[in-house]
Every structure is written in structure tokens, then in C-alpha cells.
Specification:
By secondary structure, the chain is mainly alpha-helical. The chain contains 26 helices and six strands.
Length: 562
């Protein structure tokens, strides 16, 4: 069970609460505490909290290569003796030490915690003696968990006594005690040598520079879109002739009639998924995984933190935005890390406008393919600008001040090809398992409707969207189906128009894409928002984004379509 990462089990962060609740659920056989060997002193504080729970633990000192790079040498045997648990050194990115880690699980033991300061130990002992679960004593002492009503007076007395003796809140006293013990453990087992200063340290001076970092970020995005467009165009050129030939043979073999239209429509949906979507989706997801694994995406978060401050949001709001470029569902779920309700609402409303992989395919497959990669990049930059303006307006309507950002910046690493392919497949699987069948079903339904003469009525039902946008009536159904998956709007548009997408004017292509970039997010995202924010607020976000998309689409029409 891979639990959410946490620096502490006593914080109010939802991820930390989930971790603690599972650890106390009684379903845990052993805990593998994956600690950062290059920052062992900080990591040992969580080890001490695990000791307070009494669970069997194996301490995994991961990123041992980074510890060596920083000049930190750790005496594993001595650390294992002091804590009484197996200690294993690993470099997980290269698979080193993982077999030893698995072997050590059979020898997991509860952590033998060195004592805290005498007054802290006395306070904890008093609480352990009366609480139903002794392991709750640190949480109750810190004020993170309410005691049973009949023990409230006693607990309050213990907390007041400790606070009076130290002159600080018991939560701070306990954290200080844990920090002091962790520091002593680190000093006992670690030897500090001279760190190696190389290109990685010097690269951050440039990539995270408060001025130079932004143009370099723009260049990275330009390279991302350029390579995606180039690779996608090349793959499309290789795949399209063969698929078109197969489509022609399939159509000739089926003949005419509603049944043939149904089967041919299903085939066209599948074929379009291969010829139009996959050529752009695979390179984009692969490059996104590369930027994540090389360590650049957290640095983007660091750079964008300044923008978050200007929007009236802070720190942690960066994380959902970055996740949104892959998929807006995890972006919405990531708003759980925000403690403030107002920040969660504003961040979720903005995150659903970030171009996810599906919207990126529409941008690349339409604007990038027919108008040019520079126009596609300008749409992306315009999207960032609109999100910034909407965020500024929302934070003025809903004033408040969110928490600051504490962001761990990982070291630069050369990604492993196997890891990149696995991460790409994990994200691509959503298209293959869910979107591809939807493409076939939707395309088949549209082909059958056309064969039965129903397409005109369907298009008329969505004329309230296509008419103000200056789009042909046939674009209505593709826009509606885009609510299921954004890729559907591209594929269905190709099948719905008599001459395909190429029959549209360049201005109409841009207008269609602008609307898709902003209007109502896909149903999976709507469902996630409903669970996280409530359905009333979700409805407001859906209506607001659709209205924004319509307004921006009409403005684009007035500028581009004469």
C-alpha cells in the first residue's frame, strides 16, 4: 500500500491524516519508511513518530547516491543498532538495494526510540496511562486529536503544565523534542565530507533565476510543443496512408445500409484514434514524463509560485496546476492539500481550464496541424494569460490569504527509459481503455444518425453554440461529445464534416479550439469536482467555464472570421 508522502503524522494536512489513519487501522504488517538519505536528519523525525505508533518498521535510506554527492556518509549498522530496526540503503531510480529491502521486511521491528526531554516523557507517560490507545498520546498532547470527554480535564491539565514549564504550546514542545533527538541520531551516525559541486548545482542558478527562469521556461515549452508537433506529424504521415487504404477496403466490403454505416462508423472512430490522436498523444506524454523524471517540473512550480502570489493564491496551488497538464482529474483531487476552503474552490476552478492531454491533442491536431506550431504555442500562452486574469478576478471576489509554499526540489536525474515508458503507458491507458471505445461508439452512433436522416436534428439542437461561434452546424455534436473526452471532439469533427477538418477555414479551426480549451471539463473531472467541492459549486464552475469559452470563442470569431 503506497501511502501519501508525509513529513509528519501530526499535521492537519488531509494526506497526513489519511496516512496516520491507515497506519492505525490494524491492517499494517510492516512499514517501509522511505527516507531521503541526503536529508537524513529531517527524515528521522518521521521515524520517531512511527516509533510512537509501535509498528514494525524497515528504514530505507533512499537516494544514497545523492547523499554521497552531498558528502554525507551514513553508518547503517550503527543506525540499525540505535533504532533496533533493519536499515537498508537504496538507489531506487536505478534499482539498487531493492532486493535487500524486500529481504529485510521479514525482520521488521518496532523502532526503539531514544527518550525525549524528561518533562516531555512525563507528560506522554501520564497520557498513555489513561488513554484507551496509548499510541494516541503524542497526538492528544499536541492538540491534534480530541481526548475522550471524561478525560478532557486531565488532558488539559497535562498540556497546561507542560506549556507553563516551557512557555510554548505543547505541539511546539513535542516537535522540538523530536527534532532534537533526530539531530542527535544524525550526528551519531553521519560523517560530513566535502560536497561535490557540479553542473546540477550551477544549472539551478540559471533555471530557477527570478528573471532568466521565465524565458527559459518558455523555450522549454516551445521545444515540448515543437517536438510533439514534429513527431506527431511524422507519425501521422506514416500511419494515415495505410489506415485510409484499410478504410476504403472496409467500406467496399460492407456496401450500403444502416448496418454497414454503423460498422463503418465504428471503424472510422477507431481508425481516427490511431491516425489523429495517438501520433500526438504519445510524444506529448513521453516528453511530459521526461520533464517530470529529470526534475524540471518542481522547478516550474518554484517559478510559478510568484505568479500564484500575484493572483492572490499561494504555494500549494501550483501543484494542481502542474498536474492539470497531464489530466485535470488528479489536478482536482490534489486540491485536497489546500487547507483553506476558498483556495480549494479557486484553484479547482482554474485547474480545470489548464490544457490537459486531451485538450493538447485538439490544439496539436487542429491548430498545430493546419495553422502551424507557433499558433498552437500562442494558444497555450493565451490560455495561461486567461487563467491568470480569471484567477485575479476570483480572488478579488473571494478575498483571502492562502498558505505559503514549501516545495522540495529534487536533484536532476537522467531518467531511465523503462520508467518513462511505464509512466507514459499509465497515462495512455486511460485513452486506450476508455476513450478509444467511446470513439468507436460515438462515431458509430453519428454514422447511423446520418444514415437514418437524424443528424440534422441533432445538429440543430446544438445550434445555440455553433451559430455564435461561426461554425458549421455539423460541429455541434462533436462539441457536445467533447464533454465525455476532449479527444472525441477532434475525431468526431473529422467524421462529421463532409470534407473533414480540412474543409474549415483557418479562423474556424482556431475558434473551435479556443472553445474546447475552456468550456465544461470532461465528465470524469466534473465527477471529481462534485465529490471534492460539492455539486452546487461544481455547477457554477461548469457554467462559468462554458460561458468563458463561448465569450472567448466569439471574440476569436470577430477577430479571425470575416
Amino acid at each position: 500500500m503506497d501511502l501519501p508522502g508525509a513529513y509528519s503524522l501530526l499535521g492537519g494536512d488531509p494526506a497526513e491524516r489519511v496516512t496516520r489513519e491507515f497506519l492505525l487501522s490494524g491492517e499494517v504488517d510492516a512499514v517501509v519508511h522511505v527516507a531521503d538519505a541526503s536529508a537524513l536528519g529531517r527524515s528521522l523525525e518521521l521515524t520517531l513518530e512511527l516509533a510512537e505508533l509501535g509498528l514494525p518498521v524497515v528504514l530505507c535510506l533512499n537516494m544514497a547516491d545523492e547523499a554521497e554527492h552531498k558528502g554525507v556518509a551514513i553508518d547503517q549498522r550503527k543506525l540499525a543498532e540505535l533504532l533496533g530496526v533493519p536499515v537498508v540503503s537504496t538507489v531506487a531510480s536505478r534499482g539498487q538495494g531493492l532486493a535487500d529491502l524486500v529481504s529485510a521486511l521479514g525482520h521488521a521491528r518496532p523502532v526503539r526510540r531514544p527518550p525525549y526531554a524528561p518533562d516531555v516523557e512525563r507528560a506522554l507517560e501520564k497520557l498513555r496511562a489513561v488513554l484507551p490507545s496509548p499510541h494516541e498520546a503524542p497526538q492528544v498532547l499536541a492538540g491534534e486529536a480530541p481526548p475522550p470527554p471524561e478525560l478532557r480535564a486531565l488532558v488539559d491539565g497535562v498540556r497546561r503544565e507542560l506549556a507553563a514549564a516551557r512557555g510554548e504550546d505543547p505541539a511546539v514542545v513535542l516537535a522540538d523534542a523530536r527534532h532534537a533527538v533526530a539531530a542527535r541520531l544524525f550526528e551519531a551516525v553521519a560523517t560530513l565530507g566535502k560536497p561535490r559541486v557540479g553542473w546540477r548545482e550551477r544549472a539551478d542558478d540559471v533555471l530557477m533565476h527570478p528573471i532568466l527562469g521565465y524565458p527559459l521556461l518558455t523555450l522549454v515549452l516551445l521545444a515540448l510543443f515543437g517536438v510533439t508537433f514534429w513527431a506527431g506529424g511524422a507519425l501521422e504521415g506514416l500511419l494515415s496512408p495505410g489506415i485510409e487504404a484499410l478504410s476504403g477496403r472496409f467500406a467496399a466490403a460492407l456496401g450500403g445500409g444502416p448496418a454497414a454505416s454503423l460498422l463503418l462508423g465504428a471503424w472510422d472512430g477507431l481508425a481516427a484514434g490511431v491516425a489523429l490522436v495517438l501520433p500526438y498523444l504519445v510524444p506529448f506524454l513521453l516528453l511530459l514524463a521526461f520533464l517530470e523524471d529529470v526534475g524540471y517540473m518542481p522547478r516550474v512550480g518554484f517559478l510559478l509560485d510568484g505568479l500564484m502570489h500575484k493572483l492572490g493564491l499561494h504555494g500549494k496551488s501550483v501543484i494542481p496546476f502542474l498536474l492539470g497538464y497531464g489530466c485535470t482529474v488528479p489536478a482536482v483531487l490534489a486540491t485536497r492539500i489546500l487547507e483553506d476552503e476558498r483556495d480549494r474552490l479557486v484553484t479547482a476552478a482554474l485547474a480545470v481550464m489548464v490544457p490537459c492531454a486531451g485538450r493538447t491533442i485538439v490544439v496539436m491536431g487542429l491548430v498545430g496541424r493546419f495553422v502551424g506550431p507557433l499558433a498552437a504555442l500562442l494558444l497555450y500562452l493565451g490560455n495561461v494569460g486567461v487563467i491568470a486574469l480569471v484567477g485575479w478576478a476570483l480572488t478579488k471576489l473571494l478575498p483571502g490569504e492562502g498558505p505559503g509554499l514549501i516545495l522540495e526540489i529534487p536533484p536532476y536525474r537522467l531518467p531511465r527509459g523503462r520508467n518513462l515508458l511505464r509512466k507514459t503507458w499509465l497515462r495512455l491507458k486511460g485513452f486506450v481503455v476508455l476513450a478509444w471505445p467511446l470513439l468507436a461508439l460515438s462515431s458509430a452512433a453519428l454514422a447511423l444518425a446520418e444514415a437514418l436522416g437524424w443528424a440534422g436534428g441533432l445538429n440543430l439542437a446544438f445550434r445555440f453554440l455553433t451559430w455564435p461561434l461561426g461554425l458549421p452546424a455539423e460541429a455541434g455534436v462533436p462539441l457536445a461529445l467533447g464533454i465525455l473526452r476532449k479527444e472525441l471532439s477532434l475525431v468526431m469533427l473529422e467524421g462529421a464534416l463532409p470534407g473533414g477538418v480540412a474543409s474549415l477555414a483557418l479562423g474556424q479551426i482556431v475558434v473551435f479550439t479556443v472553445f474546447v480549451l475552456f468550456y465544461v471539463p470532461c465528465l470524469a473531472t466534473v465527477g471529481a469536482m462534485g465529490r471534492e467541492l460539492g455539486w452546487r459549486r461544481t455547477g457554477l464552475v461548469v457554467l462559468g467555464t462554458t460561458a468563458l469559452g463561448l465569450v472567448l470563442g466569439v471574440l476569436a470569431r470577430l477577430i479571425l472570421i470575416r
